[in-house]
Write a structure and sequence with these properties.
Elements lengths: L1 H15 L6 E5 L3 E3 L3 E8 L16 E15 L2 E14 L3 E5 L3 E2 L2 E2 L3 E6 L12 E7 L10 E9 L3 E7 L6 E5 L4 E7 L2 E14 L3 E5 L3 E8 L6 H5 L2 E8 L3 E5 L11 E2 L1 E9 L5 E2 L4 E10 L17 E5 L3 E7 L2 E14 L3 E5 L2 E7 L4 E7 L2 E6 L9 H5 L7 H49 L14 H9 L3 H9 L9 H10 L3 H14 L10 H17 L3 H15 L1
Parallel strand pairs: 2-9, 20-28, 22-30
Antiparallel strand pairs: 1-3, 3-5, 4-5, 6-9, 7-8, 10-11, 11-15, 12-17, 13-15, 14-15, 16-19, 17-18, 21-23, 23-26, 24-26, 25-26, 27-30, 28-29
Helix pairs in contact: 4-7, 5-6, 5-9, 6-8, 7-8, 8-10, 9-10
């Protein structure tokens, strides 16, 4: 009894222990200039009741602002959480420094090295309000070596739809390195917004490679100088375009063409078995997993291993999985192989070693990654007619199983498309019938309530100025009630009013009232009010005082104003 009670208490204590959170830190740029900003993001996979301790920040870096974010979801009964802090930093002094480990409650992040270069203030000369710079990380790379092209767009104002059109080169690969970074810098007392684009360029042949111009396009924002609500809500823009100068690269030939040429910053080779084993049994397969990762190489450049046949063992390789990821502005390629091994008879076997020879760009020398040969013992009764890879590929002269499955899927998909087309046609006919019935009944109802081709008049004029203030104060319910209690004659409700307006061709006015109705029934605590609705009703008061028109004309003014704003 005592043991059961002790076990129950132990489980209860374990259950109430807080889940250990995993905290990581990433920096959008590790090489910056003085007076440039950078963004530090601290991520956590569990909620934390503490804030990051930023007092450990080095003297060369200052904190500008921070923002906390969080998001939690329940999927298939499991709760996932993602939260953290986004911290904007600025470099204030040049040199090599380090953002140390930042404490967040009981957890801490990993340190990050930062290289701070001198600022551009030393460059004397007149600065333009809008210009770009292009810079190559290495103008003299090897064949297939990745060189990074960095394009910085400088602007003294915001730019919408900023994008770059990259050229194509027949004998080289151009790959974008992630999304463009955005930050702020100060040059000669001028504050610039920077859009930084990075591209990887790898030539497939030696000699001179000319990189054509990259074209930048965007819409530069020009603020209104006139007063009024529209000047704040609708800033003017003008299209801008710049292009880089053509660049020349001198491509060095490979050092050795006898093997696969792999120029990389770093390369690793890993191999393991699933499931792990000490001895193998005949007829029980195991899988060897081999992975190559290389910094500075595309996944398509990495080789695959081909297992030599061994009497008594059969190899069955799966299709290799290739993947690229961008880390610190550099591409890292990987190739993952899964090769099944089936023992056919007992004995002692030696699995050959795995070797990858590559060129280290940091030391300018060849290196070889090796997985040693493996000695394995197999026990069990031998298989008389073992299955080989060739048998699986073409058994008895038949097509491979994968080809048969593909043909069957194609046949089934064609039949499925025919039935889908029939179902969609039937559904469309039903929808059209319902729409025709709805239109006919709506017209009949509207004709019974008001005269045709006539806009109904109001019992009394609505205070449009009051209505505009209520909407501007985000009080759609009060504005809705004000309109509801001042309906035109012979109109029972707002829905009836919208139907009559649409039947009389006043679709824009009906849409305006529909937006107000949707805001009232919105589940949001602070509905997002269309600025056009506020501007239209606010401008109506001036229009009424200026022209003093009748009630029917007021409705037409609403439509005209709404159409002009659009």
């Amino acid at each position: 009894m005592v043991r059961k009670l002790f076990s129950f208490c132990l489980l209860l204590c374990v259950g109430i222990l807080p889940v250990m959170a995993k905290v990581t830190a990433t920096l959008d740029r590790t090489t910056v200039k003085v007076d440039e900003t950078m963004t530090l993001v601290i991520n956590s996979d569990s909620p934390l009741n503490a804030s990051p301790d930023l007092s450990v920040m080095p003297d060369k870096i200052q904190v500008l602002q921070q923002m906390q974010f969080s998001n939690s979801q329940y999927i298939n009964g499991q709760r996932t959480y993602k939260g953290g802090w986004q911290i904007q930093l600025i470099a204030v002094d040049q040199g090599v420094t380090q953002i140390p480990s930042i404490q967040v409650g009981n957890e801490s992040t990993q340190p990050i090295d930062v290289h701070i270069l001198p600022s551009n203030n030393a460059n004397q000369g007149e600065l333009k309000p809008f210009y770009l710079e292009a810079e190559l990380s290495n103008p003299n790379p090897f064949v297939q070596e990745q060189t990074v092209l960095t394009i910085k767009v400088h602007s003294d104002a915001d730019i919408d739809n900023a994008q770059i059109k990259a050229p194509s080169i027949s004998n080289a690969f151009i790959t974008p390195l992630g999304t463009p970074a955005q930050y702020v810098t100060r040059e000669q007392e001028t504050l610039y917004r920077i859009w930084e684009f990075k591209y990887s360029i790898a030539s497939q042949t030696a000699g001179t490679l000319q990189v054509p111009s990259f074209i930048f396009q965007g819409d530069k924002i020009i603020r209104h100088r006139t007063r009024g609500p529209l000047s704040l809500l609708s800033p003017q823009t003008r299209p801008v375009q710049l292009k880089t100068k053509a660049l020349d690269l001198t491509i060095k030939p490979a050092k050795d063409l006898s093997t696969t040429w792999l120029p990389a910053q770093h390369l690793t080779l890993e191999s393991y078995w699933r499931p792990p084993f000490k001895k193998l049994k005949v007829g029980e397969p195991v899988t060897r997993i081999i992975e190559i990762k290389a910094k500075g190489l595309d996944a398509a450049q990495l080789p695959e291993f081909k297992m030599e046949p061994i009497d008594g063992l059969s190899w069955f390789p799966n299709q290799a999985i290739r993947n690229n990821k961008i880390e610190n502005g550099q591409i890292e390629g990987s190739v993952l192989q899964r090769i099944a091994l089936m023992p056919n008879k007992a004995g002692h076997y030696t699995l050959p070693a795995l070797n990858v020879r590559w060129w280290d760009l940091q030391t300018n020398s060849f290196k070889t990654e090796t997985m040693d040969a493996l000695e394995v013992d197999v026990t069990g009764i031998p298989i008389i007619n073992p299955v080989t890879q060739q048998d699986i590929s073409h058994p008895l002269g038949l097509k491979p199983v994968a080809v048969q499955n593909a043909e069957l899927m194609e046949k089934n998909s064609q039949q499925l498309l025919i039935w889908r087309a029939i179902a969609i046609t039937t559904m469309l006919l039903w929808v059209l019938t319902m729409l025709a019935w709805r239109i006919s009944t709506s017209k009949k109802s509207s004709l019974d309530s008001v005269e045709p081709n006539a806009i109904p008049s109001r019992n009394e004029p609505i205070s449009w100025k009051k209505l505009a203030k209520l909407i501007a104060k985000k009080s759609p319910l009060e504005a809705y009630n004000l309109l509801k209690h001042n309906l035109p004659e012979k109109i029972t409700n707002i829905e009836n009013l919208m139907e009559i307006l649409r039947d009389n061709g006043e679709n824009e006015s009906a849409s305006l009232i529909q937006e107000l109705s949707e805001m009232v029934y919105s589940k949001e605590q602070q509905p997002k009010i269309n600025p056009l609705l506020v501007d239209c009703i606010a401008a109506l008061e001036t229009q009424l005082n200026r022209h003093k028109k009748s009630a029917n004309q007021d409705y037409k003014n609403i439509i005209n104003l709404y159409t002009q704003d659009k």
